[in-house]
Every structure is written in C-alpha cells, then in structure tokens.
Amino acid sequence: MTDRTAEAPSSATLSSTLVGRLRNAIMRGDLMPGTRLNLDRMRASFGVSLSPLREALCRLENDGLVTIVDQRGYRVTPVSAENLAEVIRLRVELEGMALREAIQHGDIAWEGRILAALHQLNRCKRSARSSIEEQEVWELAHRAFHAELIAACRMPLLQQFCATLHDQSDRYRRIFLKTHTPDRNVAEEHAAIADAVIKRRVREASAILRAHIERTGRNIQTALDHGLCST
Amino acid sequence: MTDRTAEAPSSATLSSTLVGRLRNAIMRGDLMPGTRLNLDRMRASFGVSLSPLREALCRLENDGLVTIVDQRGYRVTPVSAENLAEVIRLRVELEGMALREAIQHGDIAWEGRILAALHQLNRCKRSARSSIEEQEVWELAHRAFHAELIAACRMPLLQQFCATLHDQSDRYRRIFLKTHTPDRNVAEEHAAIADAVIKRRVREASAILRAHIERTGRNIQTALDHGLCST
DNA sequence: GCGCCCCCAATCATCGATTATTTTTGAATC
DNA sequence: GATTCAAAAATAATCGATGATTGGGGGCGC
Asked: What is the per-residue pLDDT for B5?
C-alpha cells in the first residue's frame, strides 16, 4: 500500500507522486464520483506520459478510488448508499478487531504515540471557516490518529484493509459533509477512545470506536440521500 | 478485482490475460516466493512489451502476490510464518462474517448453486497421481465452491477481501502442500459445510468453516516450518 | 592492507508514436 | 420518423526507443 502520510520524499517515482496527487483530487472531491478519466486530457493536465498515469490509476484501483473497465477506460469509483453502508460496516468490524489486538499487544511507547497523535490532532483548528490548508492538516492528523490506534495490532494485512476502508469512508465524508459543520464534539470522542485504549479497556474502547464510526456513517448517509435525490 | 474463473473470453486486454498467466505461475509455484522479476526477461519470455507487463504486475500487487519497490523492481511476494498466520486468521474472521450474512440473505436459488458447486467439486478426482490438469480443475472447482458459499452476503467489498485472502492462502497450500496427499476427508468437510448452510444453522456452519480453514492452515504451517528450516 | 569514491553495466522508468478498439455521426432504408 | 449500417472520429492499448537510477567493481588516497 502506498504511504499516505509522507509525500514521497526522495526515491519517488513519477507514478508514485501521481498516485498521491490523484488520491487527493479524488478524496477532496475535485474529481467527483463517476467522472470519466480521459487519459489524453489527464496526460496533458498533469504533464506526464501515459505509462506512469496508467500505473497510478491502476494503483488507485486497489484502494477502490478508481474503477477500470477493459478497453473502456477509467472512472472515479461511483458512490452509493449500499457501498457506504458496507464500508461503514466493515470499518466497524475490522477496525474493531484491529483495536482489540492492538490493545493486547501494544506497549508503553505505543500509548505515548497515541497521546502524541491525539495532541497533534487537537492542535488543529477545524471549523467552517478554516482554510483549505488547515482542513488538509486536520485530515492528515485525523488519519494518523486512527492509524496509530491500530498500529500495534501486528497484523499488516488487516491494517492495510483498514486503511483502504478509511480512505473510502473519508472520501464520502469529505464530499458529502463538505458544508456540514461538525455537529458533535468529535474531539471528545477521540479523547475518550484514547483514554479507554490506554487504560486497556477493550470492550469500552471498541464500543466507543464503533459508535464513533457509525455516527459519522449515519451523518454521511443522511447527506448522501439528500444529495442523490437533489441531483 | 480481476475475475479468476473466466479466462478473459472476448474483450480481454493483453494486460488482463497476462494477469491470469502470471497469477497461475505464482500460485502453482512456478515462480517461487521471493523471486526477482526481471522486466526485460519477462518481456522476452511472454512476448509482450513493457507497458502491459507493468500493468499486470501492478494489478497482482493488489492481490498481494507481487511486491513492488520503487526504482528497484518487482518480486514475487515472499512468504513467512507470520504472514500465513495472519492470512488464516483473517480468512476465519472475514469468511465467517460473510457466511453469516449469506445465510441470512440467501434464497433457494443460492442453495441450489451451492449444491451444484459441491457436486462439481466432488466430481473432480484428486489424488497424488492426478494429472496437473485434473488438479487445476479441482482448484477451480474448490475456489468456486468457497466463493458460492459467501456469494449471497450482499457485501461486494467483503467478498473481494475474501477472494484476495483465499488467493494468498491457496498459494501457500499449493506450494507447501505440493507433495502432501490429502490426509483428511476434505470432501466430507465441504459437504458438512454445505449441509449446515442450507439448513441455515449459522453457528454450526461458521464453526465447521472455521475448523476447515484452520486445519488447512496448521498443515501448511507445519510444512512451511520444515521447508524454511531445510532451505 | 583497508576504506572511500567514482565510473560502468544492468535495470527500471518514462516518453512519443503506432495500432486496435470503441463510440459517434450521418446517410440510406424501411 | 425511427432504425440500421458504415465510415470517421475519439479514445484506449501497445510498442520500441530514450532517459534515469541503482549496485557492483576497480582505482586512488590514507
């Protein structure tokens, strides 16, 4: 899986950097779900040749952000209420499993990293009037916090699945809750999860995480229903 | 995800057919874990250009059969006891979840398809003296049976995860249990699963499936430990 | 003799052009 | 007016060649 946090520092191949750029464009909704991705035009607008572009799109297909049909090109993966429901459901199950494992295996240093990630996240301003850059920083910190929660689970494949699902879930949130100001105190929820995790309260932690994910899911689902009706 | 059953009938792009050929080569152990995949030599031996080759390898990376390192080429994903353990663990959890959902949602036609798949599977001869082709047919039927069990779960993403994990698990089995004659009556286990599923006995079905997966896992793990020591 | 640096061969990454496929368009027919 | 077929335009897939990057081996200084 491509690293989402570090922006390809040294040994970055052109394809890899493209993956990052395209991922951001899709996640933030610059490229809306269902959009056809014309190769020639993309080649022109990104200033690259077809080979790295194809490779980047192929890698994004793995993350479920792009859909390929042989001989018929690429498009941004469409959205649907059913797909969102499945993403949320799987996030609950898989992140829950990962969290339980992490609590079982994590050491003190891991607890420290969770607190650090939480602190970093809380330092991000996030309101309706935040600049794009500020929001972007919050997204990164938010992603990092959730990743850290399950980082100690010793199951790399599972972490990868969770990352993929989180990507897809974030895309929905960022597109359909774009105008939606945070209605609930998300920061408190994060703090509660971190607290329960560090106190090694397995049941409590996974219950809060589940609620956290499902609440977000319901909010998106509502917005999605309205959005799809009006379109 | 690429279709594993149909061998790219009509609108097959060169890359797609390559994916199938390479997947088979890796799954059956012609290309052993860890092998470096030299692009030039492969280009020559498959008689294609670099573009479709790269694309095929990229798609196989998604399935976890090939590992890419920027600027340093491709290699067949290595194996390890830890990885195998995680694959088995995740198969148990995810296929279990999928099976429970399928039992809940499946209709009569689905039951019929399960029985059909089981029948097809039982008609395959499988012994130490089977020809390669016969073994290949069994592998396909086996895969189809397991896929059918969870086909009614209404969770396409979950099915995809299961398919990926099954691929990885099958690779281990086919490489490390190559000489190993089936020690137990696998056919009976399959019949028992199908029976429990059709009788809608959720707990019983998932318990048998779990045992089925874990037993195979233990056998592979044993062979793997010996194999890795002797190498 | 040992370690470091630079150069060369091998190999991966990228490009621009060519070929094959799909989609559109437009004219002829029913 | 709708339908069907064929040619043309658009677009995707593939190729062969060119431009980077890496890793190994010989030469130089210490």
From this structure: 42
